[in-house]
Specification:
The protein contains seven helices and no strands. Helix 1 (3-33) runs antiparallel to helix 2, helix 1 (3-33) runs antiparallel to helix 4 (98-129) and helix 4 packs antiparallel against helix 5 (132-167). By secondary structure, the protein is mainly alpha-helical. The structure holds fe (ii) ion (FE2) (2 copies). One fe (ii) ion is lined by residues 23, 50, 113, 116, 149, 152.
C-alpha cells in the first residue's frame, strides 16, 4: 500500500472507531427519548450491534498493527459532532415534550448513521483492493457489519419520516415500510417509500403502536397497519 493510501485508511479507521464510540452514546440517549415501543426495541438492538461494531473496528486496528488511540483532526471533528447530537437530544428531553424529543432523536440517529454507513461503505471499497492479511481482515469486518449498517440507516430514516408525518396529522405507516420489508439497500428503501400505503383517516397517536407487535427483523414483525405488498428482502 502506498504511503497516501495507508494514511487515508488510517484516517478512515480512526473516524470509523470514533463514529461507533459516539454512536453508542447517541443510542443510549436516543433510547431515553423513544416513546414508541417498537422503535425502542429496534434502537436497543442497534445499540448492541453498535457496541459490537466498536469491538470489530478495534480488532481491525489490531490486525493492521495500528494504534486505536491515534488522534487526528478528522477524528476530533467526528467526536465533537457526536457530542453535539447527544446535546441536542438532552435539550429536547429537558423540554418535557416527549413526542418532540423522539423526533429529535430520530433525526440525530439518522445523522450519526449516515456517517457510520459511509465509513463502512468506504471500508468495503478498500477491502476489495487490499491484498494479504490486511485485506482479509477488512473484508471479514465489512461482511459482518454491512447489513446491520444498512438497517440502521434505512430503517431509522423510515421511522423518522413516518413519525414526522404522524406529528403533522398525516396518515403514517408504523412501523415504517423499510422495516417491514427488511430493506437493506438504497434502492430498496426508495421502493419501500414509493410503495407506502398509509391507511387514510388520519394518523394514530404514537401510543397506537406501543403494544409491541413483534420486533426484530426478517419478517418476524407483524404489521400493525395495512401497507404495500411485501417485496422480497434486499430489493
Ligand atoms: Fe456501526
Ligand atoms: Fe450504525
Amino acid at each position: 500500500m502506498k504511503g497516501n493510501e495507508s494514511e487515508g485508511l488510517k484516517e478512515l479507521l480512526c473516524q470509523a472507531l470514533e463514529t461507533e464510540m459516539g454512536g453508542i452514546q447517541v443510542y443510549r440517549t436516543a433510547l431515553r427519548c423513544a416513546v414508541n415501543a417498537d422503535l425502542k426495541k429496534e434502537w436497543q438492538e442497534y445499540l448492541e450491534q453498535t457496541e459490537n461494531h466498536e469491538r470489530i473496528v478495534r480488532g481491525l486496528f489490531s490486525s493492521l498493527d495500528l494504534d486505536p488511540g491515534t488522534e487526528t483532526t478528522g477524528r476530533t471533528i467526528v467526536r465533537e459532532k457526536g457530542k453535539g447530537l447527544v446535546a441536542a437530544m438532552e435539550k429536547a428531553l429537558s423540554s418535557g415534550k416527549k413526542d418532540a424529543a423522539q423526533l429529535v432523536a430520530c433525526e440525530c440517529v439518522v445523522e450519526a448513521e449516515t456517517k457510520d454507513h459511509m465509513n463502512w461503505e468506504l471500508i468495503g471499497e478498500v477491502a476489495k483492493k487490499q491484498t494479504g492479511e490486511a485485506g482479509k481482515a477488512l473484508k471479514a469486518a465489512h461482511d459482518e457489519v454491512e447489513d446491520e449498517e444498512d438497517e440502521h440507516l434505512y430503517h431509522t430514516t423510515g421511522w423518522c419520516r413516518e413519525l414526522w408525518l404522524q406529528s403533522l396529522g398525516q396518515p403514517a405507516v408504523l412501523p415504517p415500510p423499510e422495516e417491514r420489508k427488511d430493506v437493506k439497500t438504497a434502492i430498496g428503501a426508495a421502493r419501500a417509500k414509493a410503495a407506502r400505503r398509509p391507511r387514510s383517516g388520519g394518523a394514530k397517536s404514537a401510543s397506537s403502536s406501543r403494544s409491541g407487535n413483534g420486533g426484530g427483523r426478517g419478517g418476524k414483525r407483524q404489521p400493525s397497519r395495512s401497507s404495500a405488498p411485501t417485496r422480497s428482502a434486499r430489493t
